[in-house]
Amino acid sequence: MNQKIIITIDGYSSSGKSTLAKKISKKLKYKYIDSGALYRSVALLAIRKKIFYSDLWNTKNFIPILKETNLKFKWNQKYSQTDIFLNGENIQHKIRSKQVTNKVSLIAQIPEIRERLTLMQRNIGKNKGIVIDGRDAGHYVFPKSELKIFMKGSIEIRSYRRYQDLKKIGEKVSYEEVRKNLIHRDMMDISRNISPLKKSVDSIEIDNTFLSIEEQLNLIFKFINKRTSII
């Protein structure tokens, strides 16, 4: 591959976007941007500032707090991954809690937050050579990206994946609770007024309900080879 490109992977919660993005970026030696981690970081900040449980929970009062916050991606060479730092603290594993998951959709609906995080992502990707996953990476953040993937899967499979992930980090939660949360998250992502979750007309849709990770990667790299062969 002589010229670097931008690869976007959008889709529903727990559809395996991050797993695929990480593997693709590692093989291509591209930067990986987890856009969801940015929104989760802001949600964690709001929780720590007790924004959700006070009269402060409105855009007017929360945005100044966000403007004074330092969010950064840093490459973790030891684990070959991109970590996210909030005011100098590595919060990579703290943003996956159930508490953050339950609040992140509220954060994602605020236009001022989306604007700031969109600019941050575009700045990281200005020289291309990135793989980014999220909800609006293909149709809004990088509308001119060379390859756009849209991931989907059955609610049962996605709920089970999320349930297993939460168990690994010690969260006490039932499968049914996770399933209800994902259904609610899907509705909020699809119906929000600002940059809702939707498939771009030039996206390649992959339903991975019955596909292994290896099968998904093989399929995606076929598309990557087609795109890069004509660039």
What can you see in these coordinates?
- The chain has a single domain (6-228), classed as Rossmann fold.
- The strands form two sheets. It has a five-stranded parallel β-sheet with strand order 2-6-1-7-8. The protein has a three-stranded antiparallel β-sheet with strand order 3-4-5, covered by helices on one side.
- The protein is globular and about 50 Å long.
- Helix 1 crosses helix 9 (213-228), helix 2 packs across helix 4 (98-108) and helix 4 runs parallel beside helix 8.
- It is an alpha/beta fold and 231 residues long.
- The model has no long low-confidence stretch (mean pLDDT 88).
- It contains nine helices and eight strands.
- The termini are close together.
* Mean pLDDT value: 88
Helix content: 40-55%
User: What's the CATH architecture?
Assistant: 3-Layer(aba) Sandwich
In CATH, what is the homologous superfamily? P-loop containing nucleotide triphosphate hydrolases
Please give the largest β-sheet. 5 strands, parallel
The side-by-side strand order for the widest beta sheet comes to: 2-6-1-7-8
The count of helical stretches stands at 9
Number of domains: 1
Total number of β-strand segments?
8
The percentage of residues in β strands lies in 15-25%
Cα shape? globular
According to CATH, the fold-level topology is Rossmann fold
Give the terminus-to-terminus CA distance: 9 Å
Please trace the helix and strand order, writing H or E for each element.
EHEHHEEEHHEHEHHEH
The CATH C-level name is: Alpha Beta
User: Structural class, please?
Assistant: alpha/beta
Q: What Rg is obtained from the alpha carbons, in whole angstroms?
A: 17 Å
Show unreliable segments.
Answer: none
